[in-house]
Design a protein that fits this description.
two-stranded antiparallel sheet; rRNA (adenine(2503)-C2-)-methyltransferase activity; 2 domains; binds iron/sulfur cluster; TIM Barrel; metal ion binding; eleven-stranded mixed β-sheet; about 20% strand; about 350 residues; DNA polymerase, domain 1; alpha/beta
Length: about 350
């Protein structure tokens, strides 16, 4: 049900002999009001709902756990209808001048096949792709639960940075983007959504051609092939030279700059590495986002201290590279992707909300 565009609903309603306006009503209830059951749909008769439910299934996931950080970040663990578990995160940014920003970080796959060295999700392997309805569903369910406390709550931004490699589930991710962009649905602007990729070159080029105006972030993490292949195994399939060429092509076609994510550990936050990034990114239309690594059990990686981070950023700036340090969110609640799911599987079943 949550994967359905209004056009699909019109077709289904037509085939069931129902009035066309039923499709608009259903789309509104599901995609804007974020209802989680047929019973909550108020202005469609029981008979019509019964007919529709014979054709379309509605399986909202079960909320297993919600954790709240001292900084307001909330992390959710959901169990899908087939028993698989996914995580998503809500980050709130209060603004003085403009409206508050509520960003949801969504998962696009159950698990991930890429296997990045610093990632809890990657350590557990790939299970399956999510459908567009399951991707949108994360935003709808967060909206549903928050509206019980704040009836006007509205998600404003989406980042595809949760579990999974979005560009290896390209069609469903694009389907979710189009659904969330619908004015009669969540109405989230294309420019307020960002896809983050480990560097799947053919799909970066496909995205450039389709140019849906969403943002593109590339998890770079190292400036030479040897180091990057160790951290981000996708680099063994598409080298840095191929990736940078695809990013240049992306910027040429879309006229948009690419965000380059660089995770810094106590080991790689040094002058030599910073200079390597300057050489790699010189002349590229882009912006570097420095991310101090989240402590994940089993990776052996240590977070760099603030002084090392600042020095690293200064070298990039001096080399003419636009750079910022990502604001840390939710480190006290294991907000990095895959950590909550892993804890749950290891038997840590705390109550749903632990503040
Ligand atoms: S960082 Fe992203 S691409 Fe890499 S293993 Fe984790 S989920 Fe997959």
């Amino acid at each position: 049900m949550r994967s359905c565009t209004e056009e699909i609903l019109q077709t289904v309603c037509g085939e069931l002999g129902l009035k066309r306006f039923r499709a608009a009503q259903l789309f509104h209830w599901v995609q804007q009001k974020a209802v989680r059951s047929w019973d909550e749909i108020a202005n469609v008769g029981k008979g019509d709902l019964k007919l529709i439910s014979s054709r379309l299934s509605f399986h909202p996931p079960e909320l297993l756990k919600e954790r709240r950080s001292v900084d307001g970040t909330r992390k959710y663990l959901f169990r899908l209808h087939d028993g698989e578990m996914i995580e998503c995160v809500l980050m709130d940014y209060a603004r003085e001048q403009s409206r508050d920003r509520h960003t949801v970080c969504v998962s696009t796959q159950v698990g991930c096949a890429v296997g990045c060295a610093f990632c809890a999700t990657g350590m557990e392997g790939f299970r399956r792709n999510l459908t567009s309805g399951e991707i949108v569903g994360q935003v709808l369910d967060i909206t549903y639960f928050i509206r019980r406390e704040d009836p006007d709550f509205q998600v404003t931004n989406i980042v595809f940075m949760g579990m999974g490699e979005p560009l290896l589930n390209y069609e469903e991710v694009l389907g979710a983007i189009k659904l969330m962009n619908q004015e009669k649905g969540l109405n989230i602007g294309m420019r307020r959504m960002t896809i983050s990729t480990s560097g799947v070159v053919p799909q970066i080029l496909q995205l450039a051609q389709e140019n849906p105006q969403v943002g593109l972030a590339v998890s770079l993490h190292a400036a030479n092939d040897r180091a990057r292949s160790d951290l981000v195994p996708m680099n063994r399939r598409y080298s840095l030279a191929q990736l940078m060429e695809a990013c240049r092509e992306y910027s040429r076609i879309t006229r948009r700059r690419v965000t380059f994510e660089v995770a810094l550990t106590d080991d790689n936050a040094n002058q030599t590495e910073a200079e390597d990034f300057v050489r790699l990114l010189k002349g590229q239309l882009g912006h570097v986002n420095l991310i101090p690594v989240n402590p994940v059990t089993g990776t052996g990686m240590k977070r760099p201290d603030l002084e090392k981070l600042k020095t690293f950023a200064r070298v990039l700036e001096a080399g003419g590279i636009s750079v910022s340090v990502r604001e840390e969110r939710g480190t006290d609640i294991e907000a990095a992707c895959g950590q909550l799911r892993r804890q749950w599987r290891e038997g840590n079943h705390e109550p749903i909300s632990s503040i």
